[in-house]
Amino acid sequence: MTWPVAIMYLVATLLGLLGGGLLLRLRTPLSQPKLYAFRMTGIMAVAAAITLGASATAMWRWTVVP
Asked: Which pLDDT tens digit goes with each residue over 16-61?
């Protein structure tokens, strides 16, 4: 595994944890603006984590010589 791939996985993990934390925070009572912001940001962070993780996996597989 190359350094760029490892960094991509690290950033994907951090985004996933951040997004998951924001989405879990929705279980508590929040004002309408916070509810909207946490939901939007949480979903976008999780989506970014999934996309970045998939890209890192593809990049890793392309660098492996069979």
From this structure: 999 999 999 999 999 999 999 999 999 999 999 999 999 999 999 9
Is residue 46 within 8 Å of 19, Cβ to Cβ?
yes
Residue 66 inside a domain? The answer is no
For residue 40, is it within any domain?
yes
**Phi then psi for 31, rounded to 5 degrees?**
-70, 165
Residue 48, domain member (yes or no): yes
23 and 46 in contact (C-beta within 8 Å)? yes
Structural domain harbouring 51 = 3-61
For residue 43, what is the DSSP state?
A: H
DSSP character at residue 1: -
